[in-house]
Design goal:
By secondary structure, the chain is of the alpha+beta class. The protein contains 27 helices and 30 strands. The strands form eleven sheets. Strands 2-1-3-15-16 form a five-stranded mixed beta sheet.
Length: about 850
C-alpha cells in the first residue's frame, strides 16, 4: 500500500511551492522555460511575468455526480435506490475503498514518483513541451497532480456547458481539447498554468487526497467517470476488489479513455480484435508493476496470459430503471425540475439533478406500492384493446399529503413508440408533474356540490325531487340557465326519484345532484373545488369556465388532485398538497431545501367535513356504488364513484388516514369502455374496484383508520316544511300548489265526498312534512252526503223522509220504532255526520 504520509524527499520536492512562486518562476525561466517560450515566439523579457501573472489558485469544485432517487423501507430504514440521473456516471469512493492493487497499477503506469515529487516533474515536463513543439512526440509527461488539475479544468468547463444546446456534445469535446492542447504559445501557457496549480494543490492537499480526487474525477470512456463507476461498468466489480488484470486494464484505459474503452463489439479495439490496443496498454501497465516490485513474476505472467473479458453492467439511468415504481419516480423527478427551490431556471434545476450528486429521499411506501402495483398488473395490463386504455392509482397520507403509492398500467418509456403499452405520461399527475393533462373525473366531482350544499346550511336529510326534468333552471354566476337533464339521465336509464341527499350520494343519482345544484350556484360549486386544491390538469383554474353540467365532472383533472380533495374531507377539513419528497441531501451531505409540507386548516369546516363523510360512507356500504372497492376489513371508509361518457371511470375511497384514487379509461379518444372484446374477460369499467380495494387494504393494515366524526346535528337534521292545504281544489290546482312548495304529488284513489269527482277531498300528510316528500291527494268520488241533523224527536215516517231526501237508500229501523207515537232517539251514523249515500243508517226510537 502506498504510504499515506509524505517522505522527507517529498517534502523537499514540495519546496518549489514553499519558497515562493517568484523563485519558481525564476528557476523555470533560467533553466529551461525561456528557451521553450522563445521557440513559441514569446519574448524573453516577458517570460517571468507570464508565469507570475497566471492565477495561483484553482477552485476544485465538486465533480459532476449522479443524483439518486430513493424509497425508504419503513421496516428496516434501508434506502432503496429507484433511479439515478447523470451526465457523468460517477460513484465517488473514499481512499479506503481503493484496493492496493489498483493504486499500484495507477502509480506504476502514470506516476511512480507520485509520493516523492512536489507536484511537477520539471525536466520531463519541459522536455515534453519541446518535443511537442518539434512534433517529435505528443506525450504529456504530467504527474498525477497535473492530471488531476487538467481533469478539474475539464470538469469546470463541462459544468458550464449548456446541456440543452444543440452543440452540447461538441462543447464537451472542446472542453477536452482546450485542457489538453499542447501546441504553440497557448499550449505552453496552459502547461505553465497546470504546473502552477499543481504546486498550489500540493501545498494545500495531502497526497492521498490528490490521488483520490484524480481517481474520482477521471474519465474512463463515454459517460463513465471515476474508478468505482468504471469498475462496476466494465467488470461488474468494485474498486476495492479488482483483480490484477482488471486493475491494470483500468489503469491503462485512463490514459486514452475513449480509444481504450472496452465496451465496443465491432471496429478497432473491440471485442472483435480482443481489444488489441487496450491489451497492449494493459500489458505495459503489468510490466511497470513488475519492474516496480508491486507484483511477482508469477502474478505478472498469469495476468498477462489472461484475455480482456469485460462483464458490462449497462449504465442505464432515468426512471425506466425503477420498474413498477417508474411513474412515481418520474413524478418526483418533475418536482426537482420544476420547483424554483432547486434552481432559478429549468436549466439550473436540470443540471442540479444530472450533476449535483443529490440524494433524493421520497415518500413512497413500498409496503403499499407493492400490492397496488400487483393489482394494477393483474387487472389492467398495458394496451388491453389497442384503443388507448389506461389506468392509474395513487394513495395519499391524509395528514400530510405524502404520496405513498402511485401505479400505472403502462410501461414507462421516454422513447416514442406506436405500442400503447409504453408511455412516459404520468396519468395520475398533471402537466407540470408528468406531462399529463388530466381526465374527466365524472361523478367524483359531485363532492363539491355536496360540500357547497352543506356550507349553504342544507341538510343531508333534505328531500328533493330527483326525477329527470326536461326544464330545470340552474343558477350560474348569478344568472339562470335552463337545461334538460333527460339528455344526461342516470346510470342504467333510471328516471330518478324523490329522496334525500344521503340516498342521492350513495346511489350517485345524477338527476338528484342536479336538483341539489338548482338550489345553489354552479360558480360557487366550482369555487369549492378550487379551494380544495383542484385545478385543470393544465394548471388553469376550474372557476375559469362555469356551466350547469360541471356538476357531473366533465373537467379534465388529475387523479392526484381529486385524491387530495377527498383527503381533505377525511382529514377533518384540512387540505394537504400532495408531496413526493421528504429530504434531499447535497453531494457534501448537507440538506438541500425542499418544498415544505403544505397543509391548510379550515379549507372546509370540521362540521361540514364530518357531515360530508357521513354521506360518503353510504357509497361504500353494501348497496352503495363503491361497495365493490371496500376491503371490508373493519376500517370505516368513505368514497365516491364516477363515470364520464362511458369512456372513463374513477373510484376514490378513504379512511381517516389514507385516500386512494383509481382512474381507468381512454387516455386518448373516447371509445366505449363498456363494450370490449369478450376475451378481455369482462367490462373494463370494472377494473377500478379491485385495484382500489387492493391498494386501500394494504394501506389500512399499516395506517390504522379511525371512526369518522359524527355528522353535525344541524346539517343532518330532518327538514319539515308546511304543507299547503289543497282540499277543495281541483286536482290540477292542488298539484301545482304542492309542487310549487317543493313537494311531489301522488293522486290516490277517490274517497267519499260530496264534491265533484275532480275536486280534492283529502290529502296526506297535512300540516308539515319533509321537504320534497310525496303528498297524496284523494279526489272526491261524488258519493258523500250528511245524515240530517234534525232527526232526533221526529217520527219514524218523518225521519225516513228526511234520510231519503239526503240520498240515503239503505235504512234500518230498530223494533223500538214500531207502533204509533214513537220518536227517533238516535242514529248510526249520528245526525250531522258525513257518510256515503250507500251507507246503511240505523235508527233507534223511544
Amino acid at each position: 500500500m502506498p504510504q499515506k504520509n509524505r517522505t522527507v524527499k517529498g517534502v523537499l520536492g514540495g519546496l518549489l511551492g514553499l519558497v515562493g512562486l517568484s523563485a519558481v518562476a525564476g528557476l523555470l525561466v533560467t533553466t529551461s522555460v525561456t528557451p521553450v517560450l522563445a521557440m513559441a515566439g514569446i519574448a524573453g523579457n516577458s517570460a517571468v511575468t507570464l508565469f507570475e501573472d497566471l492565477p495561483a489558485n484553482l477552485d476544485v469544485n465538486a465533480p459532476m455526480e449522479q443524483s439518486t432517487i430513493y424509497a425508504t423501507d419503513p421496516n428496516t430504514g434501508e434506502n432503496i435506490p429507484l433511479a439515478s440521473f447523470y451526465e457523468q456516471n460517477r460513484v465517488p469512493v473514499t481512499y479506503d475503498q481503493l484496493s492496493p492493487t489498483l493504486i499500484n497499477a495507477i502509480l506504476s503506469s502514470e506516476d511512480k514518483n507520485f509520493y516523492s515529487h512536489g507536484g511537477v516533474n520539471l525536466g520531463a515536463t519541459v522536455k515534453a513541451v519541446i518535443d511537442n513543439l518539434r512534433k517529435t512526440s505528443s506525450r504529456g509527461a504530467s504527474t498525477i497532480t497535473q492530471q488531476f488539475v487538467k481533469n478539474v479544468q475539464i470538469q469546470e468547463c463541462e459544468q458550464k456547458a449548456d446541456a440543452a444546446s444543440e452543440t452540447y456534445s461538441e462543447d464537451l469535446q472542446q472542453c477536452w481539447l482546450d485542457a489538453t492542447n499542447a501546441k504553440g504559445a497557448d499550449g505552453i501557457e496552459r502547461k505553465l498554468q497546470e504546473m502552477r496549480y499543481a504546486i498550489q494543490i500540493e501545498k494545500t492537499s495531502s497526497k492521498n487526497d490528490i490521488l483520490l480526487g484524480y481517481l474520482n474525477i477521471a474519465n474512463f470512456g463515454g459517460t463513465v467517470y471515476g474508478i468505482e463507476a468504471a469498475a462496476k461498468y466494465y467488470f461488474s466489480a468494485s474498486a476495492s476488489n479488482l483483480t490484477i488484470a482488471q486493475a491494470a486494464t483500468l489503469a491503462g484505459i485512463v490514459q486514452n479513455p475513449n480509444n481504450l474503452r472496452i465496451d465496443r463489439t465491432e471496429g478497432e479495439n473491440s471485442a472483435a480484435d480482443g481489444y488489441a490496443d487496450t491489451l497492449n496498454r494493459r500489458d505495459y501497465v503489468l510490466g511497470r508493476m513488475l519492474a516496480d516490485g508491486k507484483i511477482t513474476q508469477a502474478e505478472h505472467d498469469e495476468a498477462k496470459a489472461s484475455p480482456i473479458e469485460p462483464k458490462i453492467t449497462p449504465t442505464v439511468q432515468g426512471c425506466a430503471t425503477a420498474g413498477q415504481n417508474a411513474y412515481f419516480c418520474q413524478y418526483a423527478k418533475s418536482i426537482i425540475e420544476n420547483d424554483p427551490i432547486f434552481g432559478e431556471t429549468r436549466q439550473d434545476r436540470s443540471e442540479l439533478l444530472r450533476r449535483g450528486g443529490l440524494k433524493i429521499y421520497t415518500t413512497l411506501d413500498l409496503r403499499v406500492q407493492g400490492p397496488a402495483a400487483q393489482a394494477m398488473a393483474d387487472n389492467a395490463p398495458g394496451n388491453m384493446d389497442n384503443q388507448y386504455f389506461g389506468a392509474a392509482g395513487v394513495s395519499l397520507n391524509t395528514s400530510n399529503g405524502n404520496i405513498i403509492a402511485m401505479t400505472q398500467n403502462t410501461t414507462f418509456s421516454e422513447t416514442k413508440t406506436d405500442d400503447q403499452a409504453f408511455t412516459s405520461l404520468v396519468f395520475a399527475g398533471d402537466k407540470t408533474h408528468g406531462n399529463s393533462t388530466g381526465f374527466p373525473v365524472g361523478s367524483t366531482y359531485k363532492l363539491f356540490t355536496l360540500i357547497d350544499w352543506l356550507e349553504k346550511g342544507h341538510s343531508v336529510r333534505e328531500t328533493l325531487n330527483g326525477s329527470v326534468q326536461r326544464s330545470l333552471k340552474m343558477n350560474v354566476c348569478g344568472g339562470t340557465q335552463t337545461i334538460n337533464t333527460s339528455e344526461i339521465g342516470n346510470f342504467g336509464g333510471n328516471r330518478g326519484y324523490t329522496s334525500n341527499v344521503l340516498n342521492f350520494t350513495a346511489q350517485s343519482l345524477n338527476s338528484g345532484f342536479f336538483a341539489m345544484a338548482a338550489k345553489l350556484d354552479i360558480c360557487d360549486i366550482n369555487k369549492v373545488a378550487d379551494r380544495m386544491g383542484v385545478t385543470y390538469g393544465t394548471g388553469e383554474k376550474v372557476t375559469d369556465s362555469n356551466v350547469p353540467y360541471d356538476v357531473l365532472g366533465p373537467k379534465n383533472i388529475s387523479p392526484l388532485a381529486m385524491a387530495a380533495a377527498y383527503a381533505t374531507v377525511a382529514n377533518g377539513g384540512t387540505y394537504c398538497a400532495p408531496r413526493a419528497i421528504e429530504k434531499v441531501l447535497n453531494a457534501d451531505g448537507t440538506e438541500h431545501p425542499i418544498p415544505p409540507v403544505a397543509c391548510k386548516e379550515g379549507v372546509i369546516s370540521p362540521e361540514v367535513a364530518a357531515t360530508a363523510a357521513f354521506a360518503l360512507q353510504g357509497v361504500m356500504a353494501s348497496g352503495g356504488t363503491g361497495s365493490r372497492a371496500n376491503p371490508f376489513d373493519g376500517t370505516p371508509m368513505i368514497g365516491k364513484t364516477g363515470t364520464h361518457n362511458r369512456s372513463g371511470t374513477m373510484m376514490i375511497e378513504s379512511s381517516t388516514k389514507v385516500t386512494t384514487a383509481v382512474w381507468a379509461g381512454r387516455w386518448q379518444g373516447e371509445a366505449n369502455i363498456f363494450q370490449v372484446p369478450s376475451q378481455l374477460g369482462g367490462l373494463l369499467n370494472e377494473i377500478r374496484y379491485p385495484i382500489a380495494r387492493a391498494a386501500q387494504a394494504a394501506a389500512n393494515q399499516l395506517y390504522i383508520g379511525e371512526a369518522f366524526p359524527q355528522p353535525d346535528p344541524n346539517l343532518s337534521r330532518q327538514i319539515l316544511t308546511d304543507v299547503p292545504s289543497v282540499v277543495g281544489m281541483t286536482i290540477e290546482e292542488a298539484t301545482a300548489a304542492l309542487e310549487g312548495a317543493g313537494f311531489t304529488v301522488s293522486v290516490g284513489a277517490p274517497v267519499d265526498g260530496a264534491q265533484a269527482t275532480n275536486i280534492v277531498a283529502a290529502q296526506d300528510p297535512a300540516g308539515q312534512a319533509p321537504t320534497g316528500a310525496t303528498i297524496t291527494i284523494s279526489p272526491s268520488n261524488g258519493q258523500a252526503t250528511t245524515v240530517p241533523a234534525d232527526l232526533i224527536g221526529k217520527s219514524r215516517s218523518a225521519a225516513q223522509a228526511s234520510l231519503f231526501a239526503a240520498g240515503f237508500t239503505e235504512l234500518q229501523f230498530d223494533t223500538s220504532c214500531n207502533g204509533g207515537g214513537k220518536k227517533v232517539s238516535s242514529t248510526d251514523p249520528a245526525p250531522g255526520s258525513a257518510a256515503s249515500k250507500t251507507t246503511t243508517v240505523t235508527v233507534v226510537c223511544e
